[in-house]
Design brief:
four-stranded antiparallel sheet, single chain, 13 strands, binds arginine
Length: 582
């Protein structure tokens, strides 16, 4: 929190002297000082309302009295003013420029590293032989950006793709694979016809007894580890992953095959989960099933809600593998925290899993288990996004369409861009637009999937930010000096627009910290957008290359340089690229 924190640090001794002379202890006012809520009033503010009873004076008079006392000690750090009972502190341009120089000369742009912790980040997690839906897209994009931010802050982030690759549906899926013939089936899956494959199997399962019986026996063979059945299961998994990997590579996310840690990989731990729950004395039998009653949960009839650990037929549940997963993350991976980037509908599932895991001692209260939940993706009419036929939309098609539209927008804007470069830019802009639209929405809210808005060059969109970056690159293409030498220039901040930009740039590290500590990429997006829009006003109002004299030119170029570096780093942490021209 470069700007605000440093300014507060500078103010504390000065204010302390004044307050002590008024008989007020530090503990009474220090907790009150913070970021000014009205940007135009100042950077930092001290609200005096709660001091009124102590002073027996109206807040405005207290604020005025404090201003008069601190005035002479402020040097050239800041100015103060009293407005409606607040003491407002505004950094002086000279002090601000010193603050910015620290960022400019730092390859990490003033962003510190934290005491390293190990996090398992559970994200993406589509289901094998089922189309990945927009919810999986959200998980993939949000999870990936959280991984990048955590790593940049010095933490270890272990990516875990908890794919749904186990369970009773695999009986019917394997039988359907055999009916179709392996080659034909592999082909359908590999090109991404996952949904129709699943549906065909499902239709046979409900309408054909012979098929249903075969499917049930197949589940038994699968769970019993029959080698041929396992081989067929592998074909299903591998072919689906081939298609899913294509989507990952289009999206440019960090996930690889090494990160796959599907439900099937916890098989061996499941009996252990049962044993341990039994030993803790919390496992009960209910209607032939092994269950735990976490307490505090009731079903529709008001009866205590159980978590089913092992069904009456001996099969395990989704919750059981999530419990095994916690044991694995604590004991094998040594994680301090686990983040589950999964939609809001699974809220209760995770709350119950975390509660049982703690009751059973699988994790301790010192572990941070967090459901990083998110809302739905809606169509323009506000309904959950589906294809025209009412089916799950193929992500591959959606992304292709975004790239295609980006390409036509770029053709219009910059017809000189051709060939491979144009293709690359179209991909960076199209994919960036889709990711940014997702990330810039507060994650717990729903958002409307509107390609036209996402791809607009105006507003809080990726193309708007990418365009600001490309514009700065073009300024530097025209300038003849050494860009690297700008890290040691003196910043001369005079124009109001220049000062606004300076403040936003100086606040970048704090915006990033806020974003990662709350696992909320949208906070970083909002800040990057405010940087890009204040850059636009700066560029409109302050001549850069034709500035008044060499010193001003170099100072403004340094502002351009820092703007570009923050945009690039910030977008990079969101998993979004920046083109040099567009
Ligand atoms: N495969 C699940 C789904 O599609 C998400 C899994 C999330 N991760 C977990 N550890 N439960 O809904």
């Amino acid at each position: 929190m470069i700007l605000i924190r440093e300014l507060i640090n500078e103010m504390i001794p000065i204010f302390s002297k004044a307050m002590n002379s008024l008989g007020v202890e530090d503990s009474d006012w220090v907790p009150l000082i913070g970021r000014a809520t009205v940007e135009d009033h100042g950077d930092v503010a001290l609200p005096c309302h709660s001091l009124a009873s102590m002073f027996r004076k109206p807040p405005q008079e207290i604020a005025e009295q404090i201003c008069a006392l601190v005035e002479e000690d402020l040097d050239s750090i800041a100015t103060v003013s009293s407005i409606s009972g607040f003491v407002n502190v505004s950094a002086e341009p000279e002090w601000l420029s010193k603050c910015l120089l620290k960022l400019i000369s730092d390859p990490r742009l003033g962003i510190g590293v934290e005491k390293p912790l190990t996090f398992a980040v559970d994200y993406s997690a589509p289901n094998v032989a089922k189309e990945m839906h927009v919810g999986h897209l959200r998980s993939t994009v949000i999870g990936d950006s959280i991984v990048r931010m955590l790593e940049f802050k010095g933490h270890r982030a272990i990516r875990e793709n908890h794919v749904g690759d186990w369970g009773t549906p695999f009986g019917m899926l394997i039988e359907h694979l055999l009916d179709l013939g392996e080659d034909q089936a592999a082909n359908e899956l590999g090109v991404g016809d996952l949904d129709s494959f699943y549906k065909q199997a499902r239709t046979k399962f409900v309408s054909n007894d012979e098929f249903a019986n075969r499917s049930r026996s197949r589940v038994v063979l699968l769970q019993g580890g029959d080698p041929e059945t396992l081989r067929l299961w592998r074909v299903l998994v591998d072919e689906s992953m081939r298609y899913l990997n294509e989507v990952y590579s289009m999206l440019g996310v960090l996930l690889t095959d090494q990160d796959i840690k599907g439900e099937s990989s916890y098989q061996d731990l499941l009996p252990e989960v049962v044993d341990r729950l039994m030993r803790e004395g919390i496992l009960e039998t209910s209607e032939g099933a092994d269950v735990v009653f976490p307490g505090g949960w009731v079903n529709r009839d008001g009866a205590p809600l159980p978590m089913i650990i092992r069904k009456a037929d001996g099969g395990y549940n989704y919750s059981t593998s999530d419990l095994a997963c916690i044991i694995d993350r604590v004991e094998r991976l040594g994680c301090d925290g686990f983040l589950y980037v999964v939609g809001t509908p699974q809220k209760q599932h995770f709350e119950m899993v975390f509660q049982v895991a703690e009751q059973a001692g699988f994790m301790s209260p010192s572990h941070q288990a967090i459901h990083v939940n998110f809302g739905s993706v809606l169509d323009i009419d506000g309904k959950v996004l589906k294809s025209r036929e009412g089916e799950v939309i193929k992500l591959h098609d959606l992304l292709d369409e975004a790239i295609r539209r980006a390409e036509s927008a770029i053709n219009e804007k910059n017809p000189e861009l051709v060939g491979d470069e144009r293709d690359d830019v179209a991909r960076t802009v199209g994919i960036g637009a889709v990711k940014y639209a997702d990330l810039s929405t507060e994650r717990t809210k729903d958002y409307v999937f509107d390609l036209e808005r996402m791809l607009s060059f105006e507003g809080n969109t990726a193309p708007y930010l990418q365009y600001a970056y490309a514009r700065i690159c073009s300024i530097f293409r025209k300038w003849e000096g050494e860009r690297d030498h700008l890290t040691s220039v003196e910043l001369i901040l005079t124009h109001p627009e220049e000062l606004v930009l300076a403040r936003r740039l100086a606040d970048f590290p704090s915006a990033l910290d806020e974003s990662i500590s709350t696992f909320s990429p949208h906070k970083l997006c909002t800040h990057l957008h405010s940087i890009a829009s204040s850059f636009a006003s700066f560029y409109e109002n302050c001549n850069v290359l034709k500035g008044e004299g060499d010193e001003i030119i170099r100072s403004r170029l340094a502002m351009c340089d820092l703007t570009a570096r923050e945009l690039k780093l910030g977008l990079g942490l969101l998993g979004i690229g920046v083109p040099e021209r567009m």
